[in-house]
Amino acid sequence: MILDDFLTVNSKGIYCAYGDFFIDAREAVRVSVVSHGHGDHITSGCFTVFCTAPTKSFMELRYNKGAARDFQVYDYGVPFTLGGVTVTFLSAGHILGSSLILMEFKGVRYLYTGDYKLQADPTCTPISLVKADVLITESTFANPIVKHPDPSVELDKLNSTTYPIMLGAYALGKAQRLTAMINQYCPEKKVLLHHAVLPFHRIYEQYGYAGWHYIPYGRKIIKEQPENIIYLVPPLTFNSYFRAKNLIKVFASGWKYLQNRNDMELFISDHVDWGDILKTIDVVDPREIWTLHGDGSFLVDHYRGSRYVKIL
Protein backbone atom coordinates (compact mmCIF):
# COMPACT_ATOMS: atom_id res chain seq x y z
CA MET A 1 0.00 0.00 0.00
CA ILE A 2 1.31 3.43 -0.94
CA LEU A 3 1.67 5.61 2.14
CA ASP A 4 0.39 9.11 1.48
CA ASP A 5 2.64 10.47 4.23
CA PHE A 6 5.79 8.58 3.22
CA LEU A 7 7.35 11.95 2.41
CA THR A 8 6.33 15.27 3.91
CA VAL A 9 7.74 18.74 3.32
CA ASN A 10 8.58 21.20 6.08
CA SER A 11 10.94 24.11 6.67
CA LYS A 12 13.89 21.73 7.11
CA GLY A 13 13.35 19.90 3.84
CA ILE A 14 11.71 16.70 2.61
CA TYR A 15 11.24 14.30 5.51
CA CYS A 16 10.76 10.55 5.57
CA ALA A 17 9.44 9.63 9.01
CA TYR A 18 9.58 5.90 8.23
CA GLY A 19 13.37 6.07 7.88
CA ASP A 20 13.84 9.17 10.06
CA PHE A 21 15.88 11.10 7.48
CA PHE A 22 15.63 14.19 5.33
CA ILE A 23 16.22 14.42 1.59
CA ASP A 24 18.15 17.51 0.44
CA ALA A 25 17.79 19.15 3.85
CA ARG A 26 17.47 22.95 3.90
CA GLU A 27 18.75 23.24 7.48
CA ALA A 28 21.24 21.28 9.56
CA VAL A 29 19.60 17.99 10.55
CA ARG A 30 20.74 14.68 12.03
CA VAL A 31 20.56 12.71 8.74
CA SER A 32 20.34 14.10 5.21
CA VAL A 33 20.28 12.03 2.03
CA VAL A 34 21.59 14.36 -0.68
CA SER A 35 20.71 14.07 -4.36
CA HIS A 36 23.45 16.35 -5.73
CA GLY A 37 25.79 19.23 -4.96
CA HIS A 38 23.88 22.33 -6.11
CA GLY A 39 23.41 24.97 -3.45
CA ASP A 40 19.61 24.68 -3.30
CA HIS A 41 19.88 20.96 -2.42
CA ILE A 42 22.62 21.03 0.23
CA THR A 43 23.28 22.69 3.55
CA SER A 44 26.17 22.76 6.00
CA GLY A 45 26.31 21.34 9.50
CA CYS A 46 24.32 18.12 9.17
CA PHE A 47 25.49 15.33 11.47
CA THR A 48 25.44 12.58 8.81
CA VAL A 49 25.17 13.01 5.05
CA PHE A 50 24.56 10.12 2.66
CA CYS A 51 25.63 10.93 -0.92
CA THR A 52 27.87 9.94 -3.82
CA ALA A 53 31.61 10.66 -3.78
CA PRO A 54 31.44 13.65 -6.19
CA THR A 55 28.64 15.23 -4.16
CA LYS A 56 30.80 14.92 -1.05
CA SER A 57 33.64 16.68 -2.89
CA PHE A 58 31.37 19.53 -3.97
CA MET A 59 30.00 19.96 -0.44
CA GLU A 60 33.50 20.04 1.02
CA LEU A 61 34.54 22.64 -1.55
CA ARG A 62 31.57 24.84 -0.62
CA TYR A 63 31.60 24.35 3.16
CA ASN A 64 35.10 23.06 4.04
CA LYS A 65 35.09 21.35 7.46
CA GLY A 66 31.53 22.50 8.13
CA ALA A 67 30.08 20.37 5.33
CA ALA A 68 29.05 17.53 7.71
CA ARG A 69 30.33 15.73 10.77
CA ASP A 70 30.13 12.39 8.98
CA PHE A 71 29.81 11.38 5.33
CA GLN A 72 28.47 8.02 4.25
CA VAL A 73 29.44 7.65 0.58
CA TYR A 74 27.73 5.16 -1.73
CA ASP A 75 28.15 4.34 -5.41
CA TYR A 76 25.22 4.05 -7.78
CA GLY A 77 23.29 0.83 -7.35
CA VAL A 78 24.55 0.00 -3.85
CA PRO A 79 21.65 -0.14 -1.35
CA PHE A 80 21.78 0.95 2.29
CA THR A 81 19.16 0.98 5.04
CA LEU A 82 17.85 3.86 7.13
CA GLY A 83 15.32 2.76 9.70
CA GLY A 84 13.13 0.37 7.78
CA VAL A 85 13.72 2.04 4.42
CA THR A 86 16.14 0.64 1.83
CA VAL A 87 17.76 3.48 -0.13
CA THR A 88 19.67 3.25 -3.43
CA PHE A 89 21.33 5.99 -5.48
CA LEU A 90 20.83 5.86 -9.26
CA SER A 91 22.29 8.26 -11.79
CA ALA A 92 20.11 11.33 -12.45
CA GLY A 93 22.06 12.66 -15.45
CA HIS A 94 21.88 16.21 -14.04
CA ILE A 95 25.51 16.89 -13.05
CA LEU A 96 28.47 14.81 -11.91
CA GLY A 97 27.41 12.66 -8.95
CA SER A 98 23.72 13.58 -9.18
CA SER A 99 21.34 10.89 -7.99
CA LEU A 100 17.82 9.68 -8.22
CA ILE A 101 16.96 8.31 -4.79
CA LEU A 102 15.06 5.01 -4.79
CA MET A 103 13.38 4.21 -1.48
CA GLU A 104 11.77 0.84 -0.79
CA PHE A 105 9.48 0.29 2.19
CA LYS A 106 7.10 -2.61 2.83
CA GLY A 107 7.17 -3.66 -0.81
CA VAL A 108 6.48 -0.19 -2.24
CA ARG A 109 9.05 1.67 -4.34
CA TYR A 110 9.28 5.46 -4.14
CA LEU A 111 11.59 7.18 -6.66
CA TYR A 112 12.69 10.74 -5.88
CA THR A 113 14.30 12.44 -8.86
CA GLY A 114 15.91 15.56 -7.42
CA ASP A 115 17.01 17.52 -10.49
CA TYR A 116 17.44 15.33 -13.58
CA LYS A 117 17.70 15.36 -17.35
CA LEU A 118 17.43 12.95 -20.25
CA GLN A 119 19.56 14.93 -22.72
CA ALA A 120 23.01 13.52 -23.44
CA ASP A 121 25.79 15.11 -21.40
CA PRO A 122 29.48 14.24 -21.81
CA THR A 123 30.22 15.38 -18.24
CA CYS A 124 28.13 12.97 -16.18
CA THR A 125 26.71 9.46 -16.14
CA PRO A 126 23.48 9.08 -18.16
CA ILE A 127 20.25 8.80 -16.23
CA SER A 128 19.23 5.36 -14.97
CA LEU A 129 15.45 5.09 -14.66
CA VAL A 130 13.71 2.16 -12.96
CA LYS A 131 10.14 1.11 -12.33
CA ALA A 132 8.53 2.50 -9.21
CA ASP A 133 5.11 2.71 -7.58
CA VAL A 134 5.49 6.42 -6.81
CA LEU A 135 7.50 8.93 -8.86
CA ILE A 136 8.44 12.08 -6.94
CA THR A 137 9.51 14.35 -9.78
CA GLU A 138 10.85 17.86 -10.02
CA SER A 139 8.56 20.08 -12.10
CA THR A 140 10.83 23.03 -12.87
CA PHE A 141 9.80 23.05 -16.55
CA ALA A 142 6.62 20.97 -16.26
CA ASN A 143 4.72 23.07 -18.79
CA PRO A 144 3.56 21.84 -22.23
CA ILE A 145 4.92 24.95 -23.94
CA VAL A 146 8.50 24.21 -22.81
CA LYS A 147 10.70 22.23 -25.17
CA HIS A 148 14.46 22.39 -24.74
CA PRO A 149 16.25 22.60 -28.11
CA ASP A 150 19.16 20.41 -29.21
CA PRO A 151 22.18 21.77 -27.28
CA SER A 152 24.52 21.21 -30.22
CA VAL A 153 22.35 23.48 -32.38
CA GLU A 154 22.33 26.10 -29.63
CA LEU A 155 26.13 25.93 -29.24
CA ASP A 156 26.57 26.49 -32.95
CA LYS A 157 25.22 30.02 -32.43
CA LEU A 158 28.53 30.88 -30.75
CA ASN A 159 30.30 30.23 -34.05
CA SER A 160 28.43 33.11 -35.67
CA THR A 161 30.86 35.73 -34.32
CA THR A 162 34.57 36.15 -33.63
CA TYR A 163 33.90 38.84 -31.02
CA PRO A 164 34.77 37.95 -27.42
CA ILE A 165 31.82 36.33 -25.67
CA MET A 166 31.01 36.62 -21.97
CA LEU A 167 29.08 33.43 -21.26
CA GLY A 168 27.17 33.28 -17.98
CA ALA A 169 26.61 29.84 -16.46
CA TYR A 170 26.28 28.16 -13.09
CA ALA A 171 29.74 27.30 -11.80
CA LEU A 172 28.85 23.68 -11.03
CA GLY A 173 27.53 21.42 -13.77
CA LYS A 174 26.57 23.90 -16.47
CA ALA A 175 30.06 25.40 -16.79
CA GLN A 176 31.68 21.98 -17.19
CA ARG A 177 29.08 20.82 -19.70
CA LEU A 178 29.58 24.01 -21.70
CA THR A 179 33.37 23.65 -21.67
CA ALA A 180 33.13 20.11 -23.05
CA MET A 181 30.56 21.07 -25.69
CA ILE A 182 32.40 24.23 -26.77
CA ASN A 183 35.53 22.11 -27.26
CA GLN A 184 33.46 19.77 -29.45
CA TYR A 185 31.19 22.12 -31.39
CA CYS A 186 33.18 25.38 -31.38
CA PRO A 187 36.78 24.16 -31.80
CA GLU A 188 38.06 27.59 -32.87
CA LYS A 189 36.95 29.11 -29.57
CA LYS A 190 39.31 29.53 -26.62
CA VAL A 191 37.62 28.97 -23.22
CA LEU A 192 38.68 31.22 -20.33
CA LEU A 193 37.41 30.35 -16.85
CA HIS A 194 36.51 32.69 -14.02
CA HIS A 195 38.36 31.89 -10.79
CA ALA A 196 35.10 30.80 -9.12
CA VAL A 197 34.52 28.18 -11.82
CA LEU A 198 38.00 26.65 -11.86
CA PRO A 199 37.75 24.60 -8.62
CA PHE A 200 34.71 22.73 -9.91
CA HIS A 201 36.55 21.86 -13.13
CA ARG A 202 39.40 20.50 -10.99
CA ILE A 203 36.99 18.20 -9.12
CA TYR A 204 35.57 16.91 -12.40
CA GLU A 205 39.11 16.12 -13.49
CA GLN A 206 39.71 14.17 -10.28
CA TYR A 207 36.80 11.94 -11.28
CA GLY A 208 38.18 11.24 -14.74
CA TYR A 209 36.68 14.04 -16.83
CA ALA A 210 40.02 15.21 -18.19
CA GLY A 211 41.29 16.51 -21.51
CA TRP A 212 39.16 19.65 -21.78
CA HIS A 213 40.86 22.68 -23.32
CA TYR A 214 40.56 25.82 -21.18
CA ILE A 215 42.74 28.36 -19.40
CA PRO A 216 42.24 30.55 -16.32
CA TYR A 217 41.02 34.07 -17.09
CA GLY A 218 43.69 36.66 -17.77
CA ARG A 219 43.02 40.28 -18.69
CA LYS A 220 46.10 40.29 -20.87
CA ILE A 221 44.77 37.43 -23.00
CA ILE A 222 41.52 39.24 -23.73
CA LYS A 223 43.33 42.48 -24.56
CA GLU A 224 45.95 40.96 -26.84
CA GLN A 225 43.94 38.09 -28.40
CA PRO A 226 40.26 39.04 -28.20
CA GLU A 227 39.05 37.07 -31.21
CA ASN A 228 37.23 33.77 -30.62
CA ILE A 229 37.42 34.01 -26.83
CA ILE A 230 34.62 32.71 -24.59
CA TYR A 231 34.91 33.90 -21.01
CA LEU A 232 32.85 31.59 -18.75
CA VAL A 233 31.63 33.42 -15.65
CA PRO A 234 29.16 32.67 -12.81
CA PRO A 235 25.85 34.57 -12.62
CA LEU A 236 26.94 37.26 -10.15
CA THR A 237 29.89 38.23 -12.31
CA PHE A 238 27.77 38.14 -15.44
CA ASN A 239 25.18 40.46 -13.90
CA SER A 240 27.84 42.90 -12.71
CA TYR A 241 28.98 43.49 -16.30
CA PHE A 242 25.63 44.78 -17.54
CA ARG A 243 27.31 47.85 -19.08
CA ALA A 244 30.24 46.02 -20.62
CA LYS A 245 31.09 46.96 -24.21
CA ASN A 246 33.01 45.35 -27.05
CA LEU A 247 31.81 41.85 -26.23
CA ILE A 248 28.80 39.61 -26.76
CA LYS A 249 26.78 38.82 -23.62
CA VAL A 250 25.15 35.39 -23.48
CA PHE A 251 23.63 33.41 -20.60
CA ALA A 252 23.08 29.65 -20.89
CA SER A 253 19.76 28.68 -19.34
CA GLY A 254 16.41 27.10 -20.05
CA TRP A 255 14.65 30.16 -18.60
CA LYS A 256 13.38 32.74 -21.10
CA TYR A 257 13.65 35.64 -18.62
CA LEU A 258 17.39 35.03 -18.20
CA GLN A 259 17.82 35.63 -21.95
CA ASN A 260 16.36 39.14 -21.75
CA ARG A 261 18.66 42.04 -22.67
CA ASN A 262 21.44 39.71 -23.78
CA ASP A 263 23.03 39.85 -27.22
CA MET A 264 22.20 36.24 -28.05
CA GLU A 265 19.81 33.59 -26.73
CA LEU A 266 21.31 30.27 -25.58
CA PHE A 267 18.70 27.81 -24.35
CA ILE A 268 20.69 25.06 -22.65
CA SER A 269 19.12 23.47 -19.58
CA ASP A 270 20.17 20.70 -17.20
CA HIS A 271 16.55 19.92 -16.33
CA VAL A 272 13.87 17.86 -18.07
CA ASP A 273 11.35 19.68 -20.22
CA TRP A 274 7.68 18.72 -20.53
CA GLY A 275 8.27 16.00 -23.11
CA ASP A 276 11.05 14.38 -21.10
CA ILE A 277 8.93 14.36 -17.94
CA LEU A 278 6.27 12.45 -19.87
CA LYS A 279 8.93 10.04 -21.18
CA THR A 280 10.16 9.51 -17.62
CA ILE A 281 6.65 8.73 -16.43
CA ASP A 282 6.23 6.22 -19.26
CA VAL A 283 9.45 4.40 -18.26
CA VAL A 284 8.91 4.49 -14.49
CA ASP A 285 5.21 3.63 -14.93
CA PRO A 286 4.18 4.80 -11.46
CA ARG A 287 0.78 4.34 -9.91
CA GLU A 288 1.10 7.81 -8.40
CA ILE A 289 3.07 10.94 -9.34
CA TRP A 290 4.10 13.47 -6.69
CA THR A 291 5.57 16.79 -7.81
CA LEU A 292 8.16 19.11 -6.25
CA HIS A 293 10.32 22.11 -7.18
CA GLY A 294 8.00 23.91 -9.54
CA ASP A 295 4.41 23.97 -10.75
CA GLY A 296 2.83 20.54 -10.93
CA SER A 297 -0.60 21.80 -11.97
CA PHE A 298 -0.09 21.00 -15.67
CA LEU A 299 0.69 17.38 -14.78
CA VAL A 300 -2.44 17.25 -12.63
CA ASP A 301 -4.50 18.40 -15.61
CA HIS A 302 -2.69 16.19 -18.13
CA TYR A 303 -3.24 12.97 -16.17
CA ARG A 304 -6.64 13.78 -14.72
CA GLY A 305 -8.67 10.59 -14.77
CA SER A 306 -5.75 8.32 -15.75
CA ARG A 307 -3.13 8.75 -13.00
CA TYR A 308 -3.16 10.24 -9.53
CA VAL A 309 -0.94 13.32 -9.34
CA LYS A 310 -0.25 15.09 -6.04
CA ILE A 311 1.59 18.36 -5.52
CA LEU A 312 3.75 18.12 -2.39
Structure in words:
The structure is a single chain. This protein has 312 residues and is α/β, with parallel strands linked by helices. Helix content is 21%, strand content 28%. The protein has helices spanning 53-63, 151-156, 174-185, 198-206, 219-224, 235-240, 274-284, 297-302, and strands spanning 8-10, 13-16, 21-23, 31-33, 46-51, 68-73, 80-82, 85-91, 99-105, 108-112, 134-139, 165-168, 190-193, 215-216, 229-233, 248-252, 264-266, 288-294, 308-311. The protein is globular and about 65 Å long.
CATH architecture of the largest domain: 4-Layer Sandwich
- Looking at CATH, the homologous superfamily of the largest domain is Ribonuclease Z/Hydroxyacylglutathione hydrolase-like
Strand order of the largest sheet: 7-8-9-10-11-18-19
Total count of domains:
2
Q: What is the CATH class name of the largest domain?
A: Alpha Beta
Task: Give a short account of the largest sheet.
Answer: 7 strands, mixed
Number of helices: 8
* Cα-to-Cα separation, first versus last residue: 19 Å
Structural class of the secondary structure composition? Answer: alpha/beta
Strand content: 25-35%
Mean pLDDT: 96
Give the CA-based shape: globular
> CATH topology of the largest domain, what is it called?
Metallo-beta-lactamase, Chain A
Count of DSSP strands? 19
Q: What's the multimeric state?
A: single chain
Q: Runs with pLDDT <50, length 5+?
A: none
Range of helix content = 10-25%
Which value, in Å, is the CA radius of gyration? 20 Å
Return the string of H and E elements: EEEEEHEEEEEEHEHEHEHEHEEHEHE
GO molecular function, one term: exonuclease activity
Protein name: Exonuclease
InterPro entries: MBL, RibonucZ/Hydroxyglut_hydro
Organism: Olivibacter oleidegradans
